[in-house]
Amino acid sequence: MSFFASKNTKFRTQGLKFDSVGFVTGFLLLTLLPVLVQSNNYILQVFTHALLLANLALAWNILGVSGSISLGHAAFFGAGAYCSAVLSLEYGFSSWFTIPLAGLLAAGLGLIMDLICLRLRGAYFALATLAFVEIPRVITDNWDELTHGSLGLVGVPGLPSLSLGTWSVDFGSSITASYYFVFAYSLVLLGLVRFLFNSNLGLAFQAIREEEIAAEAVGIPANRYRLLSLLLSAYFTGVTGACYAHLVRYIEPGLVYGLHFSAIPMIFAICGGRFTILGPAMAALIIYPLNQFVFHPLLPAGHEFLYGVVLILTVLFLPAGFWGSLRKVS
Amino acid sequence: MWTTAVVSGISLGSFYILMALGFALIFGVTRNFNLAHGELVVFAGYVSYWLWKVFAWPFVLTFPVAILATLLICLGLQRLFARLCEPLELNSIVLSFGLAILIQNSMLFWFSGDYRLIRIPTLSRGLRLPGFYLSYGQLTLLFLSLTVIAILYILMYRTYLGKALRATIQDKEAAAQAGINVAVMGTLAFCLGAILIGLAGPLYGCIHYLYPSTGHQITLLAITITIFAGVGRLGGIILAGWILGLAESFAVILYGSSWREMVAAVLLLALLAFKPRGILGKGEQ
Predict the structure, then answer these.
(1) Nearest-neighbour CA in chain A from B23: distance (Å)
(2) What is the DSSP letter of B49?
(3) Which member of A228, B134, B200, B263 has the greatest number of CB atoms within 10 A?
(4) Are A42 and A172 a contacting pair, CB within 8 Å?
(5) CATH C-level class of B2-274
(6) A131 vs B273: CB contact, 8 Å cut-off?
(7) Alpha-carbon distance A208 to A227, whole Å?
(8) A328 pLDDT exceeds 70?
(9) Among A220-229, B153-162, B227-236, which is the least confidently predicted range?
(10) What are the distances in angstroms from CA B214 to CA A127, A299, A307, B100, B235?
(11) A128 touches chain B (CB under 8 A)
(12) B99-111: buried (b, 16+ CB within 10 Å) or exposed (e) per residue?
């Protein structure tokens, strides 16, 4: 471990660079968005959802940066959504408490997944994650007393409220408030991802991705670090799932464990650029609104074909993702 | 009750074999995991349903059209897969995942999300044998699947072409060294796979409701059977299909039909965790 404990700047600069121009532009636009669109509820709703998906993509990429491709993040998303929804709806806990707890449950699932997939790499890991989603989904579907099965949960309490002295804000009260809640969470997550990817830990993740045997040789315990990246990724996916449950206030197994929530984070992360910090979030904020504003009105059924097309084009022509390729040129 | 479960398990399992063969063949020869496999099966089913319902074609005549349509799509897919770079298996998973979403949404657009069933009255009638009931549908599945398996067996193990295909499955480089055109073998695998998918799709439409998102379950079944068997083992695929069919039909009796969907997933995870090279596969990494 002494290698990575050293504060050698030569190695530090090898970390993923953070694109401040893209970040500042995005930050300003998103902060001013409610003013710019004059609190148009539909546009705000779409961008709230886009930010949520950006969080999913960022969380997915914590695992992605260490080289594993997961096709089963809906397992964590759905488990998080159900955990927070059941606890706050049936047992009346505050969502300040249930949202982090949902992340812990998702991380627990991540631990189980790691135990199963310990020896698997690459394609076989991806296939295992694809099958893994079925387990929490079928259990949720059949645990009628707790989850009401396939009927789903209706009337999940809204996002929590915050009061500091005399000043208080209820994040569930209006769409603008919800928007800022999710935006704040995105900023926190982005900050964490940036810190993580530039820390020794992040460097170790990338070393594992590039050459596992060499990484082991310089003293990185690859299995333990891969587990850590999976747990972190699962935790934040679970938290995002919980936010989704409180935001949409209706969940059902087929929805939150659906292929959609497994596919979306992977597609955005790969299209944005798996080896960048900002790319996955940028892809979510561009592709999702594009789909909702342009393709959804044109093709009410089947508008998600855009995600498939974007993914195919990226894999074939821009393996580094569009943000990654942009960075390479400049 | 148990006899009925065994009979329906075996007949379902035989059909699973038919559905998985195309996937296994394409994977074996080209090392491409085609996650759009289930979507293609559903697509073939939709083609058949459409001709049968809208144009009132006899059901048997819809098979050639379904096969032809799948063949065209698969040849297109093969062009896409051929452009992939290493690591081939992982990249093919990501690419075909995108294709699956694309095909699924196109079907949602063309055929809507309604549940469709190709209702052939004769198939639901059957024979009441002592102790259990055997429907003509089950009999047809069993007969057709076994015939296709037999034909494929003869092709793979009794012809020169089959020898070349098996050589490509075993070792691509060595096969190329021996003068086998590996690219042609890849195209051939996609064609054979497409024919198998085109056969399975309409049959699937007879026994299951067709809707765009059901393809995911089929893909999972095909992956499970292929991994179970190990690469390029026809015998293993037959065994795997029957075991899966029996396991599902027992799970339905013991725990109810809502747990059925978990059987394939648990089986696949257990296989990957303990025997990633297949039950019959050799131990080498």
Answers:
(1) 14
(2) H
(3) B200
(4) no
(5) mainly alpha
(6) no
(7) 12
(8) no
(9) B227-236
(10) 18, 21, 19, 11, 27
(11) yes
(12) bbbbbbbbbbbeb
